[in-house]
Automatic annotation (TrEMBL):
This is Succinyldiaminopimelate transaminase. It is an enzyme of class 2 (transferase). Its EC number is 2.6.1.17. The keyword Transferase applies. It comes from Denitromonas halophila. CDD domains: AAT_like (cd00609). Its cofactor is pyridoxal 5'-phosphate. Keywords: Aminotransferase, Transferase. GO terms for biological process: lysine biosynthetic process via diaminopimelate. Coiled coil: none annotated. GO terms for molecular function: pyridoxal phosphate binding; succinyldiaminopimelate transaminase activity.
């Protein structure tokens, strides 16, 4: 077996199951699960209709590149969303079967394991796929702590030149999971300059880009930042986007990567062997989704309603603030994050995720410790009920 498999830690939800072992299974409260970032708003009918109308596509082997129609639809969306003047549907876009598989596969393509001390940098806390991808590509993860004192920014100012020379890939997540931080143009400028100097590739995870609160101020994207800074070839930058959160279709497994044509040429070569082409039926449903914004605006309205009602309820107890974007509250617990999550589960049947499970110790600190991630993904009334139970739990623990 691949010995690097032994370097993988249990996934956060495996740790959560272990944490809850021995708790009573009967509760006077209905279960409310706010631990996983799985959107539970209704899937738009236009997507299910398009899927059902194109089931004849199941009779065909799909192309790894996807159909020209899907690629052009994605290009059109990128240009509308980010104000880009030109993106090539032939060389700068690839459909992927969800951003998760693409984020993992990308490291296998990019990392040169023949180089000594190859490193993959990522924020800490982080989406656990980044670490697994690095380890199974033969690289060592390098964690950058994102903490409240720096507004949860991806602060790379303390990384020295010798370390940068070993970095081959940098994962960034903006809007961030779990903090919701959106990278500024200055942050992108710094990262791009370091990429130019040291040659690493940037993988920008943007799966939360369409969950934000001000319709007039959508989050800045990596390609948008590159374009504004004159990097119109998007050199060494690839973004990863998905319909899962935007359109409430996590089971569709549909997304795309876009950016540097030279990098994507090699990623396509890898994917041709990887065997992860998108079903033609899913491609047609994806075209319908990317072409419609009305359902996305309504989706944001529901999240905005939840955050506006729930943030003031929890703020006095857990110090929460509305994030820049995304659908998580990053809540500071009065004591141990694991004790808080276990107690809340036991007494009120509300599931949240301990922040320490989303991070690793780096520079003597686990930056997720003392936090829980609360995913406001359920219906508004259910999320409100969960918030009321959390307040009752905190009040009882005073």
């Amino acid at each position: 077996m691949n010995p690097d498999l032994d370097r993988l830690q249990p996934y956060p939800f495996e740790k959560l199951r272990t944490l809850f072992e021995g708790l009573p299974t009967d509760s006077p409260h209905s279960a409310i699960r706010l631990s996983i970032g799985e959107p539970r708003h209704d899937t738009p009918k236009l997507i299910t209709d398009a899927l059902a109308a194109n089931l004849n596509g199941l009779a065909n082997y799909p192309l790894t590149t996807g159909t020209p129609a899907l690629r052009q639809t994605i290009v059109d969306w990128l240009m509308r969303r980010y104000g880009l003047d030109a993106v090539s549907a032939e060389t700068q876009v690839l459909p992927v079967t969800g951003s998760r598989e693409a984020l993992f596969a990308f490291a296998q393509c990019v990392v040169d394991r023949t180089q000594p001390n190859a490193r993959v940098m990522c924020p800490n806390p982080f989406y656990q796929i980044y670490e697994g991808a690095a380890l199974l590509a033969g690289a060592q993860p390098l964690f950058i702590n994102t903490v409240a004192s720096s507004d949860f920014s991806f602060d790379i100012s303390g990384v020295d030149a010798d370390t940068w020379r070993t970095v081959q890939l940098v994962y960034v997540c903006s809007p961030g999971n779990p903090t919701g931080h959106v990278m500024s143009l200055d942050e992108w400028r710094t990262l791009f300059a370091l990429s130019d100097e040291h040659g690493f590739v940037i993988a920008a995870d943007e799966c939360y880009s369409e969950i934000y609160f001000d319709e007039a101020s959508p989050p800045l994207g990596a390609l948008e930042a590159a374009w504004q800074l004159g990097r119109t070839d998007f050199r060494n930058v690839v973004v990863f986007s998905s319909l899962s959160k935007r359109s409430n279709v996590p089971g569709l497994r549909s997304g795309f990567v876009a950016g540097d044509a030279a990098v994507l040429k090699q990623f396509l070569r890898y994917r041709t062997y990887h065997g992860c082409a998108m079903s033609p039926s899913v491609q047609e449903a994806s075209i319908a989704a990317w072409n419609d914004e009305a359902h996305v605006i309504e989706n944001r309205r529901l999240y905005r309603e939840k955050f506006d009602r729930i943030t003031p309820m929890l703020a006095p107890w857990l110090g929460v603030q509305k994030p820049d974007a995304g659908f998580y509250l990053w809540a500071r617990t009065p004591g141990s994050d694991t004790d808080f999550a276990r107690g809340l589960q036991a007494e009120y049947n509300v599931t949240v995720l301990p922040g320490s499970y989303l991070a690793r110790e780096a520079n003597g600190l686990n930056p997720g410790a003392g936090y829980v991630r609360i995913a406001l993904v359920a219906a508004p009334d259910e999320c409100l009920e969960a918030a009321e139970r959390i307040v009752a739990f905190c009040r009882a623990g005073q």
